[in-house]
Amino acid sequence: MKDTSGKYYGKSQHSRVKQKDNFYINNPVSADSIAAHLCEGWNNNYILEINPGPGNLSRAILRLGIPHLRVFEKNEEFLLQLRDISKEHSNLEIIEDDFFSLPSIERASDYTSKNDVTSFFHNVPQLSWKDGVPFKIFSVIYSKKSIKFLRFLLAALSKRVSVFSYGRCELFFLLPQLEYSYLTAEPKENFALYRWSTVLYKIFFEIKYFDKFTLDIISPTPSFSSKEKKNGYLYLVKLTPRLDLFSSLVRDNKLQDFYFFIKHNLNRRSGLVIPVMEGWVPLCGPRLIKEGMNVFTRFGDLSPEQLLMLFNQFSSWPEYEESIFQLSMKKFQMRRASGPFDEDENL
């Protein structure tokens, strides 16, 4: 393993990477298109590329003059090609590790004095929330492991930890059609696709769509049915954490409370708002009826903005701090701290 002044860091024992866990861009023309969006207006700081494979996108990024590109690749098949690229470009660093293992690595670090992610973020600037973007991340999202990583990011953002401890990093993802449907779903038009992750995406991030691509631009060849092959696309999006996320958006900066409120209530979208809320604060129904709800209003009927308003109202009540909600949230947080990261019914 080279030291921090070197070109690349050696292999980690953190995880075994299955080939189908990690997808990369195989098409140079598509790589150029993605790189143009990723690098636009970016002439300082780092881009972190997850699973570059043989480096098609890496080359496209480097051709655009980006000063610092750090790639994360653990597949031996591609390391020789990436090292050849690094000989031509001194601004390319190779980390021989799996970025999608970040949740388990950080969890293990909580129980030891060893910090195993030092190389991941070495020399990356740590900015205050209002001081701009410290780095950009790009990844193809297609495997279950990568979707699970997205769910981890939602939880991490609520606590402002992990990648978000460095500031408002921008996330560029190539999303499969189903995940893009979750991202863009609306309660009235797409009730079946409207999930807890939908709400948190829309409340936590500014979302920008760039382009869509056919599935054949990624490798390994995805496994899909004939219908998916016919209709499936990959959608390039940018997720930027909201500037007001930790100031005025959620009442009293109760982001972790809000995260649990949404995850708990949107796991079962058909749950009725008033009975659930009265289970936490007895006889609160009349307060909610004054806000336009009725006994048949479901959590899945409410838009992200309405759910945020509901939580902000709920957390302002004098009963909030002593409510059963608090006990439920603490039990949830204890389970999360002692077990593997969230399993998601969407996976």
Short description:
Its main location: mitochondrion. Pfam families: RrnaAD (PF00398). This protein is an alpha/beta fold and 347 residues long.
Walk me through the structure:
This protein is α/β, with parallel strands linked by helices and 347 residues long. The protein is built from 15 helices and ten strands. The chain has helices at 28-39, 56-63, 76-88, 102-110, 118-121, 144-159, 177-184, 196-204, 226-231, 245-249, 255-266, 273-280, 285-290, 304-314, 324-338; strands at 8-9, 24-25, 46-50, 68-72, 92-95, 135-140, 170-176, 205-214, 218-219, 233-241. Helix 3 (76-88) links the parallel strand 4 (68-72) and strand 5. Helix 8 runs antiparallel to helix 11 and helix 8 crosses helix 14 (304-314). The two termini are 36 Å apart. It is an enzyme of class 2 (transferase). S-adenosyl-L-methionine binds at residues 25, 73, 98.
Largest sheet: 8 strands, mixed
> N- to C-terminal separation?
36 Å
Strand order of the largest sheet: 1-5-4-3-6-7-10-8
**Beta-strand content bin:** 5-15%
H/E series: EEHEHEHEHHEHEHHEEHEHHHHHH
Count of DSSP H/I helices: 15
Derived from helix and strand composition plus strand pairing, the structural class reads: alpha/beta
Low-confidence stretches: 1-6, 12-17
Helical fraction:
40-55%
Rg, rounded, reads 21 Å
Average residue pLDDT? 89
Number of strands: 10
Q: Which outline best applies?
A: elongated
Protein name: rRNA adenine N(6)-methyltransferase
EC number: 2.1.1.-
Binding site for S-adenosyl-L-methionine: 25, 73, 98
Keywords: Methyltransferase, Mitochondrion, RNA-binding, rRNA processing, S-adenosyl-L-methionine, Transcription, Transcription regulation, Transferase, Transit peptide
